[in-house]
Automatic annotation (TrEMBL):
InterPro entries: SAM-dependent_MTases_sf (IPR029063), SAM_dep_MeTrfase_SAV2177_type (IPR006764). SUPFAM superfamilies: S-adenosyl-L-methionine-dependent methyltransferases (SSF53335). This is SAM-dependent methyltransferase. One of its GO terms (molecular function) is methyltransferase activity. The keyword Cytoplasm does not apply. It comes from Embleya scabrispora. Residues 1-25 are annotated as: Disordered. It comes from the Bacteria.
């Protein structure tokens, strides 16, 4: 694959008129949630159109990159916590483009025998993930729509690697806000949760509509990506129904079991994403 496909451009005109096609027939003029997130993180696996939207997001919220990195950091802390609690299999829904300290890297550092399945349907995410994991027989990338829980939970590619009768960690990190209300994310989470064995964990992060910047970002994302719904704290907390909350509950991401105390609260002013971890109780 030629590296030229992956060189970002800051030329907005080029981004909006480009007729070029990327690898696998990807239209380089159509933005992708995963690639915009990569651009906000400061990655390289995105196109010019994705950079345009990322730049607009960072104009609305100058510390958006801090927020995106906080989301990656809480994923690492959450997976590490679950692994240390004895979880040795993980189902990562809407996993996005590989970046530093991915789920399998954290889990397998704690337990080399840990098994991880990533689920996504973005063609570039799938291509990158499969290339990265080609020699890791305990990790797999599956092309599926996370909105179809029953399909995901019965896929042979998944059930061959993960034993759903045993506890696992279910990750929905920065995923549910890309589902429309019509997709009924509350019911979707319930369907997944009811399929989990007792002792499993449910890990969720989500955009919260608690700030003016959040509402402006929601408008930007909905108008350019068609997704990016900011929901109320009560709605997000409701996703954890049927689980036992792990302290400190649902909080702003940097404050969820930080590795070191948060000393500069101003760095997180205006951030809009909250998250937490719930444990499926014993029957």
């Amino acid at each position: 694959m030629s590296e030229e496909w992956w060189v970002p451009s800051n030329d907005e005109t080029e981004a909006e008129t480009s007729p070029e096609w990327g690898p696998g027939g990807v239209d380089m003029g159509v933005p992708s949630v995963a690639r915009v997130y990569d651009a906000i993180l400061g990655g390289k696996d995105h196109f010019a159109i994705d950079r345009v939207i990322a730049d607009k997001a960072m104009a609305v919220m100058p510390n958006a990159r801090t927020g995106a990195r906080a989301n990656r950091a809480i994923l690492e802390r959450g997976v590490r916590y679950m692994a240390r609690e004895g979880i040795d299999q993980f189902l990562d829904l809407g996993s996005g483009l590989p970046t530093a300290r991915n789920t399998h890297e954290v889990a397998q550092q704690e337990n080399p025998h840990a098994r991880v399945v990533y689920v996504d349907n973005d063609p570039i995410v799938l291509a990158h993930g499969r290339a990265l994991l080609a020699e890791n027989d305990r990790t797999r990338v599956v092309n599926a729509d996370v909105r179809d829980a029953r399909d995901v939970l019965t896929r042979p590619e998944i059930t061959e690697l993960l034993d759903l009768k045993r506890p696992l960690g279910l990750l929905m990190v920065a995923v549910l806000h890309h589902l429309a209300d019509a997709d009924d994310p509350t019911e979707l989470v319930r369907t997944y949760r009811e399929a989990l064995a007792p002792g499993s964990y449910l890990f969720i992060t989500h955009f919260c509509d608690s700030t003016p910047e959040g509402r402006e970002l929601e408008h930007l994302f909905l108008s350019t990506l068609g997704s990016g719904r900011f929901r109320s704290r009560a709605t997000i907390e409701g996703f954890f129904a049927g689980t036992e909350p792990v302290e400190p509950g649902v909080v702003l991401l940097p404050y969820w079991r930080p590795d070191t105390p948060v000393t500069d609260e101003s760095a997180y002013a205006g951030l809009t994403m909250i998250g937490g971890l719930g444990r499926v109780p014993q029957a």
